[in-house]
Amino acid sequence: MKLHGLGTRPDTAASASPVSGAMIPSEAGNAAPSSARRARRAAALGAATLVALGALTACAPADPAPPTASPGTEAPKADKPATPTPTAEPHAFDRGAQSIDDPASLWVVSNKARPLNPIDWAPGDLVATNGVENEFAQPLREPAARAVEALIGGAKEAGHSVWIISAYRDYATQVALYDGYVNRDGAAAADRYSARPGHSEHQTGLVVDLDDHGSCYLDGCFGDTPAGSWLAENAADYGFIVRYPEGKEQVTGFMPEPWHFRYVGPDLALEMRDQGVTTLEEFFGLPAAPDYS
Ligand SMILES: [Zn+2]
């Protein structure tokens, strides 16, 4: 299926180096068309109602979180007394330390070619966030909840007022959302801004959409706000990545979403930042997933 419909802009991903050694600079003036903005805003508001309903079934008493083993990637010690260069110590990052297929893994890669398996998978360790604004009170998996609290706290210390505007959405909610978008905008348009059920990262419980109470709610301009810039630069320290970066629509399958942060844990997030690799697909050597298979 060809991607078209909402807006036209250069296919930057096609010309970008798949693995760049440096961060890809943001493109200027890349705000989504207003129709798309309205659609997303309406989508978010629609999601509120659906989620309020969905939460009733989604928030069954959570299973206790299983003890998560440390990935166990110990940096080899230098055999001579080195000058203290904590971040420059050589290390081998183990890409196989955690599964990218298991939906319960913090590293699970979900995209248009990789549905969650089972497709209606639901996390067992959903918890509420504490001490942060959470517009629809959607839960998160426990590690992501604690991490986003720290991330928002860090942003606050830096002078930014950040809140959660979306978090966990269950399968049934995504079914209702996606069907509504298709009915309104058609499948081609809906597929650019909404995931089909079973393909939404929000279903992992590891994703938050963030906002700064400004005028860029679910809008491409959020990345250019002081809060959005701070989050993009510092998210990795808290274990998050910007999952749908600029210029990678043909890799991730989704238009840039500077508000959508995926928890992968600090080990992976920092490694990706160090290497300048901005997508999970490229980091793990997976095929680009521009469309549903
Ligand atoms: Zn999102």
TrEMBL record:
MF GO annotations: carboxypeptidase activity
Taxonomy, superkingdom: Bacteria
Region: Disordered, residue numbers: 1-37, 63-99
GO biological-process terms attached to the record: proteolysis
Record keywords, A-Z: Carboxypeptidase, Hydrolase, Protease
InterPro entries: DD-CPase-like (IPR052179), VanY-like_core_dom (IPR003709), VanY/YodJ_core_dom (IPR058193), Zn_M74/Hedgehog-like (IPR009045)
Limits of the D-alanyl-D-alanine carboxypeptidase-like core domain: 140-265
Record field: compositional bias (Low complexity): 28-37, 70-90
Protein name per the record: D-alanyl-D-alanine carboxypeptidase
